[in-house]
Structure formats: structure tokens, C-alpha cells
């Protein structure tokens, strides 16, 4: 059985036509899709495109059954106005014109009373399509509404990688299929990035390549490893430092390469003298033998591809850990070889121009930027979160579900319950955010509108054309933005007045790319740089052309650096001069002896797919994974209700006793709806919104908690 349960491309039924598109969801793979479309205009089976060199005909099972989501009986179909108390579930069906009029009227009232910054358009990656996701920023800038600092997903990992390389790109990810060793570090690829496994297994079958997996528990990817390394949460940098220590000690370090391409190899070597395997073993929980074996494998395997995932971005020392892990490839000189080097994201290779789409020319630098992850603090009046300005009193929310996915959930729920806060939610389902809104309007899904996508985890720009007609009462994100612009008096501003297809063409033209019709015929465009550029053989992207072992944690540019008005964030003064373990994580203590991570589930994608029957059946119920020794010490049996908590709150959840987690570590897989939990409060009650150093982020896998058997 294929370990990833992939859905392979097969010929469709003769009576079906096949549409070509891209997966819109918040996943680095951005798979190229083939969609069966019946004569009556309904989608059927969804498959990976065989002729796409990264997707290679394989997609995840949850997207393959997308018809279950598109034709779900609970899909939102009509605009609704709240008819009772907030969250009471009483709704009145209204027309689209009435819904849009009421949203615009609420925004006008908020602006008149509290200024334009009182309105906060809030969005994220429910779709990764540029037009349908990012047009909300054009309205924001045209109206001078509060800015949006998108911190919840990428910042620590992106920052750590670019501190090292100067830009966010790396070797062609298809080289994972042409390597001798793949190190999958900080990503459960079987569950979250299936194509990583496609290419890694290809190298194993064709070249005898070894697969190393480094993570915090024995997840499905770990079970496929030739070498499986389970580290304590937040200790990745210690492992990386010990590997580099061994490389210098045992002659694996490529000194000639570093002399040409790195900023201070001598300083690094001196710094690492004390970072022995024994030192790292005490921190990571690995044995000295495991660390030595890993260092020997990558040190003697020139073609080693370090695939570094988004697990780094969920911990308070994630930027440091990412920088340290990427540094191994430079110490070993792995970048020189096909199938070698370090890769996290290719986001900087695409060079797509979003200025008109997002209304960048209208952006006012004096308008405050509010942190997406701190929505609970913003809505409950925290003066620091509000940048010491007035309250937020109106919101438009698209493509995200903060009442479920944002940290510090008790603050989030309290903020949304304010009677003076107006909230409009544009959604596909009655999410928990929609349930506490004032106006809910129904949104299209990806096969029902035009858009363009770029793939951070691979190398293609992909077209997502409209394949089927949406329900007649459902509207696109772009429609909502355009109609609100008319009602708010800014429809004549730059970027407004175009259809989605026209906007796609304008993005492509301004980016020097082929037009919509070309993409319609060819489906995608390979933007992978030449080998020398991708592997930094012409120098790294810093002004000095060097890989930086010594990062400038405060002053260096990064892909999502906060504006100067916010400045560096978190305990940035604690960040080290060279790669090192830095304990800014929530270290377990006597009162909170466990470390909790809220890891992704295979059949959900953040809060998406948690509404579909098959995904819910496969995931079962919310559970916390507990090591048998910890369960015995606390009198907990498999299936018991337990209570876990910290200073932010506590909740009840069922226990799953398993050796897949190490003692002292708890794992809660999947972002279940709050109401799926025993008492209606979900796992993000326990996660924090304090910003990650140096440029922000949400450390949702980095929590110290207590655990006890529930006495109720």
C-alpha cells in the first residue's frame, strides 16, 4: 500500500470532460489538478496532473474527494442577517443588495465615529489565489482602513532562512527525486505535503537514497524513514549545531566551499567547539549515537537535500532553528551538487507584480498595522495590540476562521462578543466565526471562479480557471470587494472595475509573463531559476554574496518584516550571533511539566475540510496523544477524559495513549472546531499570541501545560 494513499491520475469516463486547475488551499504543494466534469456541469473525481513535473499525478485524498465539499448539504447558499443575540444561531435570509448595503453602512458609521482605522479587513489563506485572496487589500488601502500584519503562518521560518541566504528560494524541489539523501525536517509530509514524499520515494527506489525524518513525534512521515529522529519540541537548533560540530571535527566540513561562499566559517567553527553530541543529546532527547549516525550520513553523502518545513515557524525559537538547519548545507557544501542544498520555499522566484491588485500606490504608511495573530488582544482593547490608537468596531472577514484558528481563543471569543463590534463574514460554510457575525454572505469555491496561483513549495505559476457555474446565490470574493468599493465611493480608484480574468491578465502582463490565454492552453509556467542561481553558485543574495552564519537579526530585510512603526518583535535581544540553541520557548516547569504541540491532521487543512463527513470520520474525535509512562503516572487510561491547561485556560479532551509521543510531550492533532470538543472550547485556548522574535509569528506548537485525569 502506498504510504501516502495518493490519488493518481487515471483516464476519466468518456462522457466527462476534463478541466485543468490548481489546488487553492494553504499548502506549499499547490498541486496541478485534473477535474472530471459531467455533462450536467458537476465535478466528479479530482486527480493530480500526470504531466505536471512536481505534482506527478499524485494529490492528497482530501482534495481528491472535493465534490464532497462542493456539494455539501450545509454549504452556505444565501446572505443572512443576524436575527437574535450574537452566536444564538438565529438568522434572517436577505438579498445580496441588502447585505452589501448594510456592510457598507456599518463601515461608514464606524469611520464617522472612530476614524477609518476602526475598520479592519481581515483575511488569510482559505484560498491562495491571488485575485480572490488579495483584492481585499485594495479596498483597505483605498479607504485607509487598518493594516493587516499577516503573522500567523510563515514569519519565523521565512526569516530564519533569509537571514542565511538573503532570499527565499532554493534548489529545484524536483531534485528530491534525484538525490542520495533527503532530510525531511519539521514537516509531516505524508499528511501535509504529499509531493515531498513522491519525490523522496522516487530517489529511494531509483537511487537507493536514504530518507531521514526529524520531527517531534512518530507521525506517518516518520514511519517511512530510514533514519527517524524524534527531538524534544523546540530543540532543533541544538541538533543542527551538533551536526556541524561533528562535520568540523571529523573532516566532513567543506572548508574550500565555505571560504568562498560563507561569511565567517572560522568564527562558526570556534563557536561550535562546545556544541558536542553529548551537549545536544541532553537538550534534544536523542542519544549520542543517533546524533553521530545522522551527522555521518549527511557528512558522507554529498547529494543531501534538506527539506525544511513549516514546523520551524510554530515555535518561539523557530527563526534561529531554521537558520541553524540551513547552515548545515553550507558547512557540508551540499549546495554545489544536484540533489543537494537546503530548501524551504521558492516564494521569491516568481517575481509576480501585485501592486495594482493590492492597491499598493494608495497605501499610507501612517495607517496602523494590526497583528493577525493578536486578534483576541485587538478586539478586547489591548493598547499595545491596538498600537495605542482607537478600537476596531467593524470587520470584513474573508478566507479565514479566527474564532477557531487564532491563538488565545478566550480573548478572541470575548472580543467577537462585543455588542459594539460589527462583523461581516464571507464564507463557504457556517464556521464558528460566521456563527458570531452580524452579516454572513456565501462564497464561491475554487472551481467556480477565475484565479492565478504560485507555488511556494515548488516552481510553477498555475492558472485556476472557472470550470463550473456556482450556485446562483453565491458570489466571489472579488465581487464583494468591487460592490463595497462602489458603495464606499472608491470604485474609481486604481485597480477597481476589472473582472477576475482581466485582473489575472494585468498581473501577468505587468510581470512579464504569458497572458491568460497562454496559461489556458499550457496550464502552468515553470519559473525555476537556472541551477547556478537556485544553488547560489553565483553567490548568495546578501550584498556581500555570502551565506551568513552571523545573521543581523534586527536590520536585515525579510519577506514579511514588520514596518518600522512596529519594529523588531519578541525577545530579539536573546537571539545568538551564530547558530545556537536559544531557550525562548515555553520550557516545561514544575507547574507545567508537559510540552504541547497542536500538529496538523491528515484529513484537515487548518479548519478546512473539518466540515466534510469523510474527513471527520477518518479523524475520529479530538484527542491528545500521551506517552504510556505519563499516562500511568497520572492515572490515565486510553479514552479517559483529561484536562489540560496553562495560564491561558484549560479544556477537556479524550486521551489517546500511544508510544508515538515521548514522555513529557503531548500532541493534539488537527484543528477541530471548538464545538467538536467536550465543552465547546478547542485547542487554541492553550496557544499564545506573543510575537516570535525577531519579526513576529504565532508559536502555536510551543506550549507548556499541565495534565490531569478529569474528575468529573
TrEMBL record:
Keywords: Iron, Iron-sulfur, Metal-binding, Molybdenum, Oxidoreductase
Keyword Membrane annotated: no
Annotated SMART domains: Molybdop_Fe4S4
Record GO terms (molecular function): iron-sulfur cluster binding; metal ion binding; molybdopterin cofactor binding; oxidoreductase activity
Family annotation (PROSITE patterns): 4FE4S_MOW_BIS_MGD, MOLYBDOPTERIN_PROK_3
Enzyme class: oxidoreductase
InterPro entries per record: Asp_de-COase-like_dom_sf (IPR009010), MoPterin_dinucl-bd_dom (IPR006657), Mopterin_OxRdtase (IPR006656), Mopterin_OxRdtase_4Fe-4S_dom (IPR006963), Mopterin_OxRdtase_prok_CS (IPR006655), Prok_Mopterin_Oxidored (IPR050612), YoaE_C (IPR037920)
Keyword Transmembrane helix in record: no
E.C. designation(s): 1.7.99.4
Annotated ranges, domain 4Fe-4S Mo/W bis-MGD-type: 16-74
Cofactors required: Mo-bis(molybdopterin guanine dinucleotide)
Region listing for Disordered, in residue ranges: 1-21
Family under the similarity heading: Belongs to the prokaryotic molybdopterin-containing oxidoreductase family.
Name of the protein: Molybdopterin-containing oxidoreductase
Organism: Rhizobium johnstonii (strain DSM 114642 / LMG 32736 / 3841)
Source lineage: Bacteria, Pseudomonadati, Pseudomonadota, Alphaproteobacteria, Hyphomicrobiales
